[in-house]
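Look over this entry.
=====
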Amino acid sequence: MKAFSQFKSTFQIVSQEVHQSGLGVCFICGFLFWSSMASQLPTMPLYLRSLNAPPDQVGWVMGAFAIGLLSSRTYLGRLSDRRGRCLVMQIGLVVAAIMPMFYAVTQVIPVLMGLRAIHGISIAAFATGYSALTADLAPEAQRGKVIGYMSLVNPLGMALGPILGDWTQEQFGYGVMFRLAGCLALLGLVISFRIYEPAPQDNSEKEKLNPNFWSTFSNGRVWVPAFTLLMVGLSFGTLSAFLPLLIKETAAEMSVGLFYLVTAIAGFSSRIFVSRLSDRLGRGLFINVGLFFYALSMLLIFFAHTKFEFLCAAFSEGVGAGLVIPSIVTMLADRTVARERGFILGLVLMGFDLGIACAGPVTGNIIKISSLSTGFLVAAIQVGLAIIIFSTQANLGLISSLRFAIGKGRDKYIL
């Protein structure tokens, strides 16, 4: 009862903050979108294996999702700067509503790979528009708190989606599960027409309207968070593609949906925590702590053989995701102005997309010559590399970077 009362109190605070920032309808759309996406996480790899796809083909199909992400991120980021955030979010919801309907009637691996690539556009559009709109409406002095609260749609969707997808698949089959995922996104699309969006700012400065890809990317304020998300994306791609198969192989007697539920609870709790403190302690500390928990999660999965061990890894992964991604989005909001924000958010999030794209085929081939668990050891090493690069390169100069990474120095890239 005490835990329930605490959760209820926290939810009321979050609801009040979201309502005051004018983002309530946007929050509901985000919850429906991520519930739709997450409902397919525990079931898609198993669906592919039911079609007799070997591990490397499972990796290729799961990784193909990022092709759509990579090919559309920067264009959609520019589009959100020019035409508005809500339009780009609606593009994402339309794609998320349509693609699962095709999964329900398709059993050919190359066709599924193509559908997954198109499906990737949905996250590129929705996440970019959603993050940019949140940053636009968040008061500068409370930016970390508002963005942190708005990012709760991800763990909430991750809590409901996998369990709903897992249960629907077991009771009614893959076809009904995919159609349910499409309907969740469709409902989000209908609600999205009630989202409040401020009038676009003056885009008269040509260099901000048409930023150059490479000159922007080579700047330290951009490439370091992009590289960090690349390593996180490699880990997440390995997790989403091969965790259901590893749990089944180890006979841990647990539902993959339970893993994602624990991840979501941990992500929810950690986002509440970072939302309240990041405006005071800075973004770098929480990014580094989150990376540590992400690496720890991959190591725990590498050694896991029991239900308890997998659940410990789930908790650690949830904390890592709950700290890293919202903190990086908030850091980028600090480092950008509104008329370039969508483009730069899209540019940095491409790192995460590329990681997901590479994780499936790369880890799939490692698994072919080694074992399923070895892929997670490699993922832990990759996140360890991200900690080193972020700690030494995230700010202007080595000492400034180290101080920023432990919460003792200010971000010198803030505009």
User: Anything to note?
Assistant: The chain has one domain: 21-194+217-405.
